[in-house]
Design a protein that fits this description.
Elements (H helix, E strand, L loop, with lengths): L3 H4 L3 H15 L6 H10 L6 E6 L2 H7 L1 E2 L3 E7 L2 E2 L1 E2 L5 E2 L6 E7 L7 E6 L2 H6 L1
Parallel strand pairs: 1-8, 2-5
Antiparallel strand pairs: 3-7, 4-6, 7-8
Length: about 120
């Protein structure tokens, strides 16, 4: 989402596009309130790699961040970790989202990690 055409859009248009992408990537399994929390936390002027997880263990593994990365919980109850400790998802019945970024590289892409409970996917 970091191209010239996107940069020319208004903030509202950028948020509308980002919301549409989130809806597509999550299969429409996030509520409007959950989407709102995510949209308030992301910057429309940054580039994101969006990864969606439905497996608790895979999400917790992704929460173990590499050296130089920092994570911020923006939705739900999850905690990113550093080094040898394992990330933690405290509620696997609710969605969770974390933004991580390599603080040692200003040009690094931000990562938006989203957990969707399997029950929501099945209800689809």
């Amino acid at each position: 989402m970091n191209n010239e055409a996107f940069q020319l859009l208004s903030e509202e248009e950028k948020n509308t596009k980002f919301k549409a992408i989130l809806n597509t990537r999550t299969g429409g399994c996030l509520s409007n309130e959950e989407l709102k929390h995510i949209l308030l936390a992301v910057s429309a002027n940054k580039q994101y790699c969006i990864k969606v997880y439905i497996d608790k263990d895979a999400f917790q593994s992704a929460l173990q961040l590499e050296n130089g990365y920092r994570g911020k919980t923006i939705l739900g109850q999850a905690l990113a970790s550093y080094g040898t400790s394992t990330g933690e998802l405290y509620s696997c019945t609710r969605p969770a989202a974390i933004i991580s970024h390599n603080q040692l590289d200003e040009n690094a892409v931000y990562h938006l990690l989203i957990f969707i409970p399997p029950e929501r996917i099945q209800k689809g």
